[in-house]
Amino acid sequence: KQPWITSLGVDYFLGIDGLGLLMVTLSAVVIPFAIVATTRPEQSKLYFALLLFLQSGLFGTFTALNFFHWFIFWELSLVPAFFLIKLWGGPESRAAALQFFIYTMVGSIAMLLAFVGLFIATDTFDFVRLAELSRSGELTQLATTKLSGVGLSSDSVMMLLFAGVFLGFAVKVPLIPFHTWLPLAYAEAPTTTSMVLTGVMSKMGVYGFIRVLLPIFPEQMREVLTPLLWLAVATIIFSAYAAFVQKDLKRIVAYSSINHLGYCLLGLFAVLQSGDDVALLNERAAALNGVVLQMFNHGITASALFCFVGFLEHRNAGARGLDDFGGMRKVAPVLCGLMGITMFSSLGLPGLNGFVGEFLIFKGAFSLSAWATALATIGLLATAIFLLTVIQKVFTGPVKTNHTWVDLTVAERLTVAPMVAAMFVLGLAPHLLLQVVNPTVMQMLAAVKF
Predict the structure, then answer these.
(1) In the listed set 165, 192, 223, which residue is the last one of a domain according to the structure?
(2) Which pLDDT score, from 0 to 100, does residue 43 have?
(3) Which of 147, 236, 245, 390 has the fewest CB atoms found within 10 Å of its own CB?
């Protein structure tokens, strides 16, 4: 923590805990994975420079503890992503990049206005200080006094500030109904850019919910808890159904990503249920630990899934429809085997990394909000159906006679092998992550009034 813009009381404040460490590690794993998996594009120096620029923005976002420069890093990650989609994307890349930029920018502006309001009220952008003021009750008093000119009650002022920050994160995740930018952006982006978008950038929204909204606006979240839980459930069910009816493999993985992050938000929102007995504390800890593990494990699995879709697309002259494939296990058994493992990880098969986070989320959330958790199981069933449908249509059946398929090359096997190995390691030894995350989770829960 160093003085920076003293006239505004802004410090250059960086810090890392278990949550930040996992997100920084995820960025440090997925982006090099994407670079190695990249088929050298035109203007490759610019392409790789933008990926590294994006990584810098992500590192800053996951370590900054002062809104002023946290917001700078947040926006710096948007710029390279926009150009990666626009310059190297598919036929509709211009529309996809523009839609991505507009949605994210609208959310960012709402968030900026909310934090300007908080600064006017408190004279600080410091996340830690704002959380302390919120816990003591001073934040509401200061906001009411300093922002009295807006003509709203204290509860309305705080709810308005909460809504601005919430919108910025809800667009980034995205929550239904703020999701319409994502399928087009993921489908039109180059495959390796899609790996980064789903593997790391989608986690920025959930990270913001945990790092900013949970400690600063817990009362406001609790006031609208039932609608938030409905949004999480709707996100889970709708995205699973949308994935089921898609024919484009990239769009299937895109909606699958929304589905899995919906589980994260279900667990996070369930944590806000009132009650302070020890049993509920344990369930909150389970749910929040599950959320963080799900973020990390989904980043590994989803980026690998997009990589496999890229391999299929490369072998099929750019076509990636479900009906464009068939009988792949006969001609490309290694590709199908490794991709199958990745899909079962996404499904949450015990023994693979996708199981642990989902299990903890459902374990904790069921005790905290049984009705929402029960409804969310519909999404689990739909997820199993659409993933098994992909396996059936791509891996089995007659081989397409108009194509000459080849299995993974040695280079491709070496590219994906570490990620697939990580799925087994983190599935069989989840304590490797839990021992890093749990102390941070317990500290966060202790700092929030329930």
Answers:
(1) 223
(2) 72
(3) 245
